[in-house]
Design a protein that fits this description.
CATH architecture of the largest domain: 3-Layer(aba) Sandwich
Bound molecules: zinc ion
Number of helices: 18
Strand order of the largest sheet: 1-9-10-8-7-2-3-4
Shape: globular
Number of strands: 16
Helix content: 25-40%
CATH class of the largest domain: Alpha Beta
Oligomer: single chain
Structural class: alpha/beta
Strand content: 5-15%
CATH topology of the largest domain: Rossmann fold
């Protein structure tokens, strides 16, 4: 593709204009059961527009690079459970993670142990994974594995998934440079360049059939002004050279049922030439990816209010974190009085005349803030008092605020270094800082399913994991749509009873036409007739 044109080709997850998507129960997000519910609902929605294709008895091996909190363990587990319930013999086996930070390695070990061990305690296939240390070694035949504490063979996987550090490319990062094509370099401050080079080397050496890539939306910022290249077009070009047919998706978590604005690019790559499990003879990889784009739209959900996902006031995690912060004592910080005064004056406020809001100074949480953070908090509460969540982790000019529409609050993009002050309208709920596990919940991490891991991990590390991870419901929507759209190779040579790919495309065209027409119209019979002709079950009207 032409350099620089990539961004305009990304399909954007737009809110449905005429039908409001179903919502997710906050209790299901909190207890982690929502992913399984979503998987079932997505399958039902898909079957109303396409006849589901039964995959053959197949095992798909998967691995991740720059694994972080490895939330994909849950996505793949829910898909596995769904397909078992549907009678499919499609299995997913986790072969490796790759993560350099020891705290995150410990998290991956622990989560695998908590969710991957079978009921009788025997080691399942999923427990045979390797945990490699360095992304840049993934193109080698052997690499250092911290799980087995030796050099292990880097195994083949069918499905490779990766994010790269947002540190180099996020606009909120101090390392960010809009004019630098990080993704074309061999190394970078945040490690994105090394990570991508490692994944690329892996894909040139191994037979990867499916690739999933995630990064921040700043990936398509200007970059090189002479060549009009962006980091996004660099990534796209390098993946095309690896032999993939590609499609980009610009996904916002808030459209998939979680109350967080988080726009991220996801790129799905399919390699026709390596397709052991798929037959692209009647439908090309590009056509499959077009179907994925349509199916993903059926996975949209309306989020609950962010306040519904916060811990209760009596939760001991809140007390523990407060006590930890109090024990650290008041931290010193660089505090520039004259800069603070001009900041206040610039906002039309008088220095010294602004008091902290009532309740703010009454709480012990306020005592744990540095002078600078107190100043930023006071300033931001004077400037914009109604925000329920505010990130005071940077400076007065860089405070981020939650948004509210009709008293329903949506948090800003969760970041590793944020310091989020929460003030709810109920007077009995004193203002406090958000804790790390709450950031994980805003990302859809099913933390209730891993109590041991949570109890072993600091709130700071949990916030870091949340800030860097892929959004759980977005990965579910993308992967489930992909598995539903893929032309699985039949396991026997008997005449296939599967729907033809042409049917699927016609069905989706009908669905799209139907969903964009006036839903109040009672003239549905021609549409139902057409759906019947295409062997599609019409939706209940
Ligand atoms: Zn190993």
């Amino acid at each position: 593709m032409a350099s620089g044109s990539s961004a305009s080709n990304a399909s954007s997850s737009q809110a449905c204009s005429n039908v409001c998507p179903a919502s997710i129960e906050p209790s299901q997000i909190l207890d982690g059961s929502y992913l399984g519910t979503l998987a079932k609902e997505h399958a039902a929605a898909f079957s109303s527009v396409i006849v589901p294709v039964t995959p053959p008895e197949t095992t798909l091996l998967w691995g991740t690079i720059c694994s972080g909190g490895e939330v994909l363990l849950f996505t793949m587990k829910e898909l596995h459970n769904l397909y078992v319930a549907m009678g499919f013999k499609l299995r997913f086996v986790h072969r490796f993670s790759c993560e350099i930070k020891p705290a995150l390695q410990a998290w991956i070990f622990s989560v695998n142990h908590e969710v991957g061990t079978s009921a009788d305690g025997a080691e399942t296939d999923d427990m045979k994974y390797c945990l490699f240390e360095r992304a840049e070694d993934m193109g080698k035949s052997v690499a250092k594995c911290v799980r087995h504490n030796k050099f292990c063979i880097v195994p083949n996987v069918d499905l490779l998934m990766m994010g790269t550090s947002c540190k180099d490319i996020s606009r909120a990062s101090s390392a960010y440079r809009a004019d630098m094509l990080v993704m074309s370099m061999q190394s970078s401050i945040g490690g994105s360049a090394e990570t991508f080079c490692g994944a690329e080397a892996y894909m040139l050496r191994h037979i990867v059939q499916i690739f999933l890539f995630e990064n921040v939306d700043a990936l398509d910022d200007a970059g090189d002004l002479t060549t009009h290249m962006t980091n996004l077009s660099v990534v796209y070009g390098r993946l095309e050279k690896c032999g993939f047919a590609l499609k980009m998706f610009l996904m916002d978590t808030v459209l998939f049922g979680l109350p967080q604005s988080r726009r991220r690019y996801y790129i799905i790559g399919l390699k026709e030439s390596a397709a052991a499990h798929f037959d692209f003879s009647s439908k090309s990889a590009s056509q499959v990816l077009g179907t994925v784009e349509n199916l993903v739209r059926l996975c949209q959900r309306t989020p609950p209010c962010a306040s519904m996902l916060l811990l209760g006031e009596d939760d001991c995690a809140i007390d523990d974190e407060l006590n930890r912060r109090l024990a650290m004592g008041e931290k010193g910080s660089k505090y520039n009085v004259s800069a603070a005064i001009s900041q206040f004056q610039g906002a039309g406020l008088s220095w010294g005349a602004v008091d902290a809001r009532s309740g703010t100074q009454d709480t012990l949480w306020y005592d744990t803030l540095t002078k600078l953070q107190r100043n930023v908090l006071t300033y931001s509460e004077a400037e914009y008092k109604d925000a329920m969540f505010r990130d005071i982790g940077q400076s007065s000019s860089r405070v981020r605020y939650s948004q509210a529409i009709q008293d329903k609050h949506t948090v800003f993009c969760q970041m590793p270094g944020q310091l989020v002050w929460v003030r709810r309208p109920e007077p009995e709920k004193l203002p406090r800082l958000q804790v790390g596990r709450e950031a994980l919940t805003f990302q859809g991490y099913p933390i209730a399913q891993i109590p041991t891991t949570i109890s072993m991990t600091s709130e700071k590390v949990m916030q870091e994991i949340a800030g860097n991870m892929m959004s759980a419901p977005v990965t579910l929507a993308l992967l489930q749509s992909l598995f539903a759209a893929l032309p699985w190779r039949p396991s026997s040579h008997s005449k296939s009873t599967q729907t033809t790919e042409r049917d699927v495309d016609e069905a989706l065209a009908v669905f799209n036409a139907a969903s964009s027409s006036n839903p109040a119209s009672d003239d549905v019979s021609p549409r139902v007739k057409r759906l019947r002709r295409l062997r599609i079950r019409p939706n209940a009207e």
